[in-house]
Structures are given as C-alpha cells and as structure tokens.
Amino acid sequence: MDFSQSKELHEEALDHIVGGVNSPSRAYKAVGGGAPVYMDRARGAYFWDVDGNKYIDYLAAYGPIITGHGHPHIAEAITRAANNGVLYGTPTKLENKFAKMLKEAIPSLEKVRFVNSGTEAVMTTVRVARAYTGRTKIIKFAGCYHGHFDSVLVQAGSGPATLGTPDSAGIPKAVAADVITVPFNDLEAFKTAMDRWGDQIAAVLVEPIVGNFGIVEPHQGFLQAVNDITHDAGALVIYDEVITAFRFTYGSAQQVYNIEPDMTAMGKIIGGGLPIGAYGGRQDIMEQVAPLGPAYQAGTMAGNPASMAAGIACLEVLQQDGVYDRLDKLGARLEKGIVVKAADAGVPISVNRLCGALTVYFGDTKVTNYDQAEESDGEAFAQFFRLMIEQGINLAPSKYEAWFLTTEHTEADIDTTVDAVGNAFKKMAEKF
Ligand code: PMP
C-alpha cells in the first residue's frame, strides 16, 4: 500500500501542530511511531485515506461512531441544525427533548446537565460529589481512564491503601494525594482502601465495564459490593459511562448489572459523532450544581443545537429493533474467527468481548485487571496493527483499545477481516 500522501501531511503537521496530532494516541507512538494514516473520507463501516486506500474501520473514533460513519439520519439532523444556526447561548427545545430521552433510557438520571466532552462530564461529577459530601478524596481503579483533568491522571502509590502520584507533568502532588487507586475487580484491595480512608472519601469513580484496558467486565458481585461499601462510608458512587452508555444495550452498563450509581458521566455515543458530554444523577445531588447550588459548572458550547440534534438522531437509530442483537452476532462472528485463526497459526491470544466490542490481547492471560492487560505483548500488537493496516483494516493503535463494531458492518466485512487476521497471524507465527 502507498502511504506517501499521509507521510507528507504528517511532515507538514509536525511543523504546526504539537507532535503532529491533536490527541496523543493518534501519533502511533504505542505501535512504533512513524506517520499515522490520514483519513480523507468515511462512510458506513469504511474509511478512505488521502492516498486512496480503503479500510474497514474498527476504531469508530474510539467508540462514538456506533451507527457507522455519515449515517444519513444523523447527517440530516446535523444539516438541519447547521441551517438553523449552530450556537445560540440560550436554552432550546432540543435540550429538553434529549434530556428526556436520556432519562428514559437511564432511570438513575433524575436530572442531567450537558457539557462538551467526557472529561468535562467526569470532572464535574467529582466536583459535585465533593460539594455534596464536603470531603475531598476519591478512589479510582487502576488503568481506567476518566479524561485528562488533574485528579484522574494519577497512578497508584506503592500499595492499595497508599495515596496516588501524578501520572503527568504539571499536576500538583497535592492533587494526586487526594486520589487513591486500587486494582479493578479486587474487592479486598478496595475494602483495605475504604477501611483506611472511607470517612474522607467523597466518591468512588468506576467504569462499570472497563473500556480503557480493553473490554473488561466486573466480577460477579463486584459492583454491588463497591456500591454497598461506598454508601456505608457516606460516599457517592460515580459511574463513568463515557464509553459504555449505549454501547452494549440501549441505555447504560448500570442496567446490564441492575445497579444504580449516585451519578453518571457520559459522552462519545450520545453525541452521534459531535462533541458532547453529559452528567446526571440523583436530584438532591444534582441540586448542588449552579444555578441551584454552590458547585459551579458552565459552558459556552454546552447543549449546542448541533450536538443535541446529532445525539437525538443517534439514539433514534439505536432504538430500532434488533440493533444490539445484530452487534452481538457480528461481534461473536468476529471473535470466533479471530480465535480460530490464532489457534491455526499457533499465536497465543485471549479475547474479551461484550456485544459489538472486543479486545485481542497477545498472550494466554485472561484479562480481568490492568496488570494482566499490561502483560499483553505490545510488540506483537504493534506488528499485528501494521499487518492489518496494510490489508485495509483500521484498528486503534494501542494494545489496550477495543475493536468497535458499528451497525453498518456486514458479515462480509467480518469475514474479510478474519481472513486478514489469519494472514497477519501466519506472518507473526514465526515469533512464537
Ligand atoms: N471516560 C472514559 C471512560 C473514556 O474512555 C474517555 C475517553 N476515552 C473519557 C472519560 C474522556 O472523554 P473525552 O475524550 O471526551 O474527554
């Protein structure tokens, strides 16, 4: 495949945009660097790059594009919004309509507020939890990503009951000291942390189904125990459903397990591809937010008519019969195909899948926490990633990311992908 136009654009970008990209993982650092592929056009399950190469896409823009690229219903809604003026700075009917749709889909949302990104949504839930409880510390789970605000770019200290250290330059140690990180799916570690810090904890921040070191489900009973212990300590449970809302079912991961958090943060899919975030939860907690309460949060672009229209249209597509069954069937076909090809080639992998999202880890370890995901062979993934892109299959450039299916992928796309996986594994087999 010829990537010469992508290479040229990358050279140009390096002169103007820091690192050539507007979000670090796009730089392919985790897969050996070099010029990333510059996409030119997208439709349904496909991408065409600036050199004219065609790809089947499993990046789905890191999750939001569940209905495929350029879905006509969403495109029409965005066009209508564009023609009516994209930003008013006043309330609109669309906000009410969309808020009602979210509340109907996710019953724990007694009140909601729209913002512009997942980061903003999670950041505000943390502030509101602190305002509500009058406490400052939070607990999060290792390897989970909650956006790029200071309090969540924090690593574990030297044990489950130690305070965190900054995971990025520019974050004050004092901020990290208010964050405790424990391994996901490790109830004993969580109990130890809560025994030590429980009365200082404002909130426990949970990805109910992890999406940031692959797709990792909670052990049976884990989420309920986290809820019970957190509430016993007078703290709040925040679910970060930025990836999971509307990904596995029409609604949220909390409904998959029938557990209600106190607050939920969302983003990605609910914007239909346009920038969005939203948070919500129990009414008495949400009443902390300005203009009703003392916790401040605002946004020039928040609730803008274009994002609202795109989000409503996306949810309307997802309400159609059989959407999630279809994603599940396609996901199962893809998983089965990958597993068979790995066995044929003798490449050790393990796959985690839920509905239309899966992760392929290179190694035998079944992944239930971040340490196990870290063991997945990054060099093997990097080789796999390159072999796939050269065959016209676009994956996220990181061993930790999921492959996301859309409603537009076909069985034929899956079979083409599985053949490409087989070719890649055959080439990789020499290594194992
Ligand atoms: N929370 C989770 C679970 C996420 O996966 C992400 C983004 N990958 C965020 C928060 C941050 O969202 P955004 O990139 O829209 O700020």
UniProtKB/TrEMBL annotation:
It catalyses: (S)-4-amino-5-oxopentanoate = 5-aminolevulinate. Its cofactor is pyridoxal 5'-phosphate. GO terms for molecular function: glutamate-1-semialdehyde 2,1-aminomutase activity. Keywords: Cytoplasm, Isomerase, Porphyrin biosynthesis, Pyridoxal phosphate. Its main location: cytoplasm. It comes from the Bacteria. The keyword Cytoplasm applies. Pfam families: Aminotran_3. It is an enzyme of class 5 (isomerase). Homodimer. PANTHER family: GLUTAMATE-1-SEMIALDEHYDE 2,1-AMINOMUTASE, GLUTAMATE-1-SEMIALDEHYDE 2,1-AMINOMUTASE 2. Belongs to the class-III pyridoxal-phosphate-dependent aminotransferase family. HemL subfamily. This is Glutamate-1-semialdehyde 2,1-aminomutase.
